[in-house]
Amino acid sequence: MITMKDIVREGHPSLRRQAKEVPLPIGEEEKKLLNDMLEFLKNSQDEEMAQKYQLRAGVGLAAPQLGIEKRLIAVHFEDTSGKLYSYGLVNPKIVSHSVEKSYLAGGEGCLSVDRPVEGFVVRHARITVKATDMDGKELKLRLKGYPAIVFQHEIDHLNGIMFYDHIDEKHPYKVPEGAIPIE
Ligand SMILES: O=CN(O)CCNC(=O)c1cccc(Cl)c1Cl
Ligand code: NI
């Protein structure tokens, strides 16, 4: 099972590299990795397991956070309406996005960052993501709100981008005109 010792931290080169596309169909090894990543997220959100294995909670995870420079991500969370997003995705790609911006009012955190980083992470308000799921099915997801934010955080990891790269250092709580806060 994946635990915190498997997660690389700031300074590890994998966090700043371009992860490689994964040839399709994915192999058993990559399918197992996606399952292990999903299991980690579920464990990290389970009070008992998180306590037992000292896991920090996460709603998403990208393979580069494990030092594996492949375009693989997992997400596991519910949106405000209670819809479950639970995916192991291969080569996810943002194929279109809104001009409008949004940001989490509470800021963002990252398992690869062992320190709180203040400020609003300004992202696209709406995105369309194309990906292949762990069973080889082609997906096209139209996302907004919290799900759009989480997917952007994870896809950023595949491109060597950390959430604080989007924070305006001089004015961390400044947001562009019309940006939508997500509570
Ligand atoms: O890359 C994934 N992580 O680092 C897992 C830990 N962070 C979170 O779960 C998290 C927390 C707040 C906002 C967002 Cl968007 C995310 Cl993703
Ligand atoms: Ni992260």
TrEMBL record:
InterPro entries: Peptide_deformylase (IPR023635), Peptide_deformylase_sf (IPR036821). The keyword Protein biosynthesis applies. It catalyses: N-terminal N-formyl-L-methionyl-[peptide] + H2O = N-terminal L-methionyl-[peptide] + formate. Binds 1 Fe(2+) ion. Removes the formyl group from the N-terminal Met of newly synthesized proteins. Requires at least a dipeptide for an efficient rate of reaction. N-terminal L-methionine is a prerequisite for activity but the enzyme has broad specificity at other positions. GO terms for molecular function: metal ion binding; peptide deformylase activity. Fe cation binds at C110, H153, H157. It comes from Compostibacillus humi. The keyword Iron applies. Its cofactor is Fe(2+). This is Peptide deformylase. Belongs to the polypeptide deformylase family. GO terms for biological process: translation. Keywords: Hydrolase, Iron, Metal-binding, Protein biosynthesis. Its EC number is 3.5.1.88. Transmembrane segments: none annotated. HAMAP family: Pep_deformylase (MF_00163). Pfam families: Pep_deformylase. It comes from the Bacteria. The active site is at E154. The gene is defB.
